[in-house]
Design goal:
- Helices cover 76% and strands 0% of the residues.
- With 71 residues, it is an all-alpha fold.
- Helix 1 packs antiparallel against helix 3.
- The longest helix has 27 residues.
């Protein structure tokens, strides 16, 4: 249950911010990034998701896990 809540929070936080990105575009961007077809020169949303939001979100998840494990 908490894993599902974490995944929903991750997807939600990828779309919310100064540059709002629809959920459908988030999944399309992640899919193109995984397959290696990302076009950073022509798509500002891909730059925001891949270079700004994903690293920030993953760092927050790791810090939360470390704080949880430390007690």
């Amino acid at each position: 249950l908490l894993g599902v809540a974490l995944l929903l929070a991750i997807v939600f936080s990828m779309g919310v911010g100064r540059y709002g990105i629809p959920i459908g575009d988030i999944f399309r961007i992640i899919g193109s990034w995984i397959t290696g077809q990302a076009d950073f020169l022509n798509n500002q949303a891909e730059v925001v998701i891949v270079l700004v939001r994903i690293p920030r979100i993953l760092l927050c998840v790791l810090v939360g896990a470390a704080l949880s494990a430390s007690g």
